[in-house]
Each structure stands twice: as C-alpha cells, then as structure tokens.
Amino acid sequence: MKNLTVRNMMAALVAVCALSVTACNTVEGVGEDTESVGRTIDDAAN
To answer: What angle is formed at CA 16 by the lines to CA 20 and CA 8, rounded to 5 degrees?
Structure first.
C-alpha cells in the first residue's frame, strides 16, 4: 500500500513539473508576441 502512495506522489510530481515547464513557455511566447506588436506600433508611429 505504501508503494502505491509513493508511486502516486511521484506521478503527481512529474505532472506538476511538466505543466510548469509548459506554462513558462506559453507565458514567454505571449511576452514575445506582445513585444513584437509594440515594436510594430512604434515603427508605424515614427
């Protein structure tokens, strides 16, 4: 029974790590897109 609990905890930890990495990449991508839009607007204004 204890082995099953440890296995479940490890699976949950792996899932949380995978989601964290995915979330960081998504937020970084949004930041890059926003920066690109800002540059385009700035270039159009000049």
So the answer is: 170
